[in-house]
Amino acid sequence: MAITAKQVNELRQKTGAGMMDCKKALVEADGDMEQAIDLLRKKGQKVAAKRGDNETKEGLVIAHTTEDHKKGVLVALNCETDFVAKNDDFRNFVQSIVDVAIANGPSTVEELKGLKYNENLTVDEKITEQIGVIGEKLDLSSYSLINAESVVAYNHPGNQIASIVALNKESDPELGRQVAMQVAAMSPIAVDKDDVDQDTVNREIEVGKELAIQEGKPAEMAEKIALGRLNKFYKETTLLNQAFIKDNKKSVAQFLKDSDPELTVTQFKRVQLK
Fold it and tell me: Which residues of the chain have pLDDT under 50?
């Protein structure tokens, strides 16, 4: 049967595939739209199988919140080349997955993959379809969700780094944005020193002792010196104790308390692709 330009355009709108790929799929499917979509998905599966060992070091990460700022998500989709990552169609595709995450609030990457992307496909199936369209391996490498009284998102220019920060109460959005920028820039490992896992603490103490001994300090003083260095470690690596990037004379905790004595950070998530 003759395939019309309208049919080709409709399939292209539904899948994002190229005009020639859409026409070929429709011809093979005798004009059946659903069968043509399946054919394009199968093409994606074949491409995925061929490129399964390829590295996906490029991509985009996008942070977003609901309009009421009670929920925030981080989604990272990796691809093989910078050329694809900078393509507007790829960016729009990542944003569409973010929209699904915001609408449904899944807890894990696997839950997100299993959600309906549209009437016909799950998110995972849509990614497979896009592998066929783009011709590169794609990997939904990271997903995070935060629910809180106030959640703020920050996307660093270029979308290689993004963060979401939870505050214990509503506040000036710019305050939260400044803290989210701090998270993106300084990559803290925990909110406060009590949130650092014990294995990390023990390791820092042991390293501190060893350094003190190597510097010729008496063994009985090594632990005291190590604990002093641990406090420095907390100041450098825990968010509330870090020097605030916009004013290093105060900590992030002090920056927040200057606005509201009760305001603090309860949680954060950060993703950096490279």
Answer: none
* 3-state SS assignment for residue 158: coil
**CA of residue 194 relative to chain centroid, distance:** 25
The CATH homologous superfamily of the domain defined by 58-184+268-272: Elongation factor Ts, dimerisation domain (3.30.479.20)
User: In this structure, are residues 40 and 17 in contact, taking their beta carbons and an 8 Å threshold?
Assistant: yes
Q: Which of 196, 203, 164, 195 is nearest to 75 (CA)?
A: 164
Which CATH class name applies to 193-259? mainly alpha
What pLDDT, on a 0 to 100 scale, did the predictor assign at position 220?
77
Query: SS3 for 191?
Result: coil
User: Each residue of 29-74: pLDDT tens digit?
Assistant: 888 888 888 888 778 777 766 676 778 899 999 999 999 999 999 9
Rounded-to-integer distance, Cα 46 and Cα 50, Å: 6
